Amino acid sequence: MSGIAIHGGAGTLDRSAMTPELEQQYLNALSAAVSIGDQIIQKNGSALDAVEAAVKYLEDFPLFNAGKGAVFTHDKTHELDASIMCGNTLKAGAIAGVSGIANPVSLAKAVMEKSDHVLLCGIGAMKFAEFQGFEVLPESYFHTDLRYNQLLQVIHEDGIFLDHSVHTDPPDKKFGTVGAVALDKHGNLAAATSTGGMTNKRWGRAGDSPIIGAGTYANNNTCAISCTGHGEFFIRAVVAYDISCLMEYAGLTLEEACQKVVNDKLVKFGGEGGLIAIDTKGNICLPFNSTGMYRGWKSESSEIFTAIY
After folding, report:
1. Which contacts of 139-147 are long-range, i.e. CB under 8 A and separated by 24 or more positions?
2. Cα dihedral sign for 41, 47, 53, 58?
3. Distance separating alpha carbons of residues 110 and 45, to the nearest angstrom
4. What region does 291 belong to: left with phi over 0, alpha with psi -120 to 50, or beta?
5. Which of 77, 198, 305, 308 is 20 to 30 A from 205, alpha carbon to alpha carbon?
């Protein structure tokens, strides 16, 4: 069995504000990302390479809050976070607060494969990137008018904001993170997550995306998880690892564990968002407690499916 699932963020998505043209752009991008990852798997490639490739595509697509489409910080810069994990070895890599890296997920993978560490942050992560030969791009590469206008609307307010506020077009409240999970033909799982964080964020804020066990987790004994939501809640609830634990220690199925965490525990806790998950048998689960989640998936026996609401 094999399979792959991706997400492009979750949140309060106003269907009436989504034009048919814009919706099709999102769906086409989700389908393309699934296809890129699936092609790697079908050629007997690794789940790790599949999730990296799928996330890289979404990082390069400016409508998603990761890589090129990342939101602006209060200082009108971009601070990017990402993580990746191999379910076979339980090795993981993550970066937080980096700037100028087109594909943060690949830098996270380099941390996993070419260092003795799991999480590198800020200046140190940038030095590691340069040492590994990553090109550091100017801020202009990451600039999009949509994201800049979002910042201008809230920069004088005291707080951080989700990647779309009620004043934007489309007017919604979306947790802008991208991610992928996969099971390859060798029975190995992997997960990856990448984000630009929250608009107007300060002081080096990082959410759950670069935190192994909170926003990303993969274990060949259970499942692979990538989360999207209000990061502070997902960190405190240790969402990704909690699902794995419920499967490993309580004997729950993937579906049961996901529903318990996303639609019970998180709701009571005040956390909004969702996640994508795949288990060792290729079962895929994509729960969310918000009005929508950009998502796509393909199992070994199915075609590519995409959805937003």
Report:
1. 139/77, 139/78, 139/99, 139/100, 141/68, 141/100, 141/102, 142/67, 142/68, 142/69, 142/70, 142/78, 144/62, 144/68, 144/69, 146/62, 147/65, 147/69, 147/70, 147/71, 147/72, 147/196, 147/199
2. positive
3. 18
4. alpha
5. 308
User: Crossing angle for the helix pair 122-131 and 104-114, nearest 10 degrees?
Assistant: 80
Residue with the two structure tokens 């090795």: 91
Q: Are 95 and 123 in contact (CB under 8 A)?
A: no
How far is it, in rounded angstroms, from Cα 104 to Cα 128?
12
Domains, in order of start, for the chain: 3-307 (3.60.20.30)
Percent of residues in the chain assigned helix, strand, coil, to nearest 5: 35, 25, 40
DSSP 206: -
* 177 annotated active-site: yes
Q: Is the dihedral of CA 41, 251, 9, 30 positive or negative?
A: positive
Give the strand pairing for 3-12 and 177-183: antiparallel
- Do residues 294 and 308 lie in contact, with contact meaning Cβ atoms separated by under 8 Å? yes
| Least confident segment among 126-140, 156-170, 232-246, 269-283 | 156-170
Pick the range with the lowest mean pLDDT from 20-24, 29-33, 109-113.
20-24
pTM of the predicted protein model:
0.93
87: exposed, middle or buried (Cβ count in 10 Å: 0-12, 13-18, 19+)? buried
Pick the range with the lowest mean pLDDT from 130-134, 183-187, 221-225, 290-294: 290-294
- Residues contacting residue 158 through CB under 8 Å, at least 6 positions apart: none
Residue 109 CA to residue 238 CA, distance in Å, equals 22
- Exactly one of 73, 168, 177, 280 is catalytic; name it: 177
